[in-house]
Write a structure and sequence with these properties.
By secondary structure, the protein is an alpha+beta fold. Helix content is 44%, strand content 14%. The two termini are 16 Å apart.
Length: 407
């Protein structure tokens, strides 16, 4: 059993250099993930809570970022707050600027972290990824990044505004974060076909895209080193953010390390691959943009499959006869459709492993970071992070059951 680090609540709320050094040494992660999580702890040590930023101040910071990249010949208009992307602060605006010999005018989005996010991630990685995926699957065009918060209060990026909706407008109101999202009989089949084809495409292309992703650590076929780094990522988050220890998290961590499977194919993993994380047109059911790539990594395709197949993203068919995985297809049909689209085999043992890992990271996010961010008043999304902390124990039960199934 791994030794548990014993520290008081105060050391996590007010971390010192010694605590951070211990955590970094015990749970080595990707270089850019280490930089991002270390920045979080250093910022937390200042004791500053979330402070609302005026729209005017964010427009001014955005102007500074644009100016640093294109010069003074531009204009920002129609700035307004944008909902969605619950873990980040977002502002929509129109930008008119001179791009080389071409005058351009496009709707844009500023995506910026709060003081602490429920998932602390790298805008630099997100920027690289969106640029690399241009022409591979539908993603918003990504223009500029302020990964060190030189121009804005926190790290941020600017990307193009994508048209579409995340859920049908004529169906009953859905719960947050895509839980139980129902596309209905008319939209389900075309959306499902595109979702699986797109997922299969970026899963196939991991090794091909890797050279365009300098902030992502390399992954080797036949090695489980990258899997262990991934497990350590969420173990480190748990150690930095938890209010109390939970024995099940120690048991699960030990099992995940001991049973980490070697990579058999390098995939680009979305990290939050599920219904609700893409936009589509209701008129023709065409997916217009994949969203929320902040948890993406180079790794094992089974992680995305396991995440999309988790219980909260399922619901029954209209006649109640079958359960639809990810609100799309029955279990066997979902697996078969993915294998046909990707040309890659789905290994039940690997899928079971990643079901445990997905449950483990969910507890780290909800019971660890969700609680910590709410307790420290670090975000504009008090209700959302409070809700995540509230549902932590049903997710703990999910971790127990997936671990028991995998044993």
């Amino acid at each position: 059993m791994a030794e548990t680090m014993h520290h008081s609540f105060d050391i996590r709320q007010n971390p010192d250099a010694h605590f951070l050094a211990q955590v970094r040494a015990r749970f080595p992660v990707e270089a850019e993930i280490d930089r991002t999580l270390s920045r979080k702890m250093t910022q937390r040590a200042t004791g500053r809570a979330y402070a609302a930023h005026s729209l005017e101040s964010l427009v001014a910071g955005t102007a500074n970022l644009v100016r640093a990249n294109v010069g003074d010949d531009f204009a920002i208009t129609n700035a307004r707050w944008l909902t969605g992307g619950a873990s980040k602060i977002q502002v929509a605006f129109d930008l008119d600027w001179h791009d080389g010999n071409v005058r351009r005018s496009e709707p844009m989005v500023l995506r910026m972290e709060p003081a602490e996010s429920v998932v602390e991630t790298s805008r630099k990685r997100e920027f690289e990824l969106l640029q690399a995926l241009d022409g591979v699957v539908p993603v918003p065009p990504c223009f500029w990044v302020d990964d060190t918060a030189e121009h804005l209060p926190h790290p941020a990026l600017i990307y193009g505004f994508a048209q579409g909706v995340t859920k049908p407008s004529d169906l009953p109101s859905q719960q947050v974060t895509g839980i139980g999202l129902n596309y209905g009989p008319r939209l389900r089949a075309p959306i499902t076909a595109q979702f699986i084809e797109h997922m299969a495409r970026f899963h196939r292309m991991g090794a091909e895209l890797a050279p365009r992703l300098p902030s992502f650590d390399r992954v080797e076929v036949g090695s489980n080193a990258s899997v262990i780094r991934l497990v350590n990522w969420w173990r480190r988050v748990w150690e930095e953010d938890r209010a109390q220890d939970e024995p099940l998290m120690t048991v699960a961590y030990d099992w995940l390390i001991a049973n980490a499977p070697p990579i058999d194919h390098v995939s680009l993993v979305h990290g939050d691959c599920r219904a609700g994380n893409f936009l589509f047109n209701e008129s023709d059911a065409r997916i217009t943009a994949w969203l929320d790539w902040e948890l993406a990594l180079l790794g094992d395709r089974h992680q995305d499959l396991a995440w999309s197949m988790m219980d909260p993203y399922r619901h029954s068919s209209e006649d109640g006869s079958v359960e639809l995985i990810n609100g799309m297809l029955p279990y066997d049909d979902y697996i078969a459709a993915y294998e046909k689209a990707s040309g890659l085999v789905v290994d039940p043992a690997r899928l079971a492993y990643y079901r445990v890992l997905c449950s483990y990271l969910s507890v780290s996010i909800c019971l660890g970071t969700g609680y910590r961010v709410a307790k420290g008043a670090k975000t504009h999304q008090d209700i959302v992070v409070g809700w995540l902390a509230m549902i932590s124990y049903p997710i703990m039960e999910q971790l127990r059951s997936t671990l028991q199934e995998a044993l």
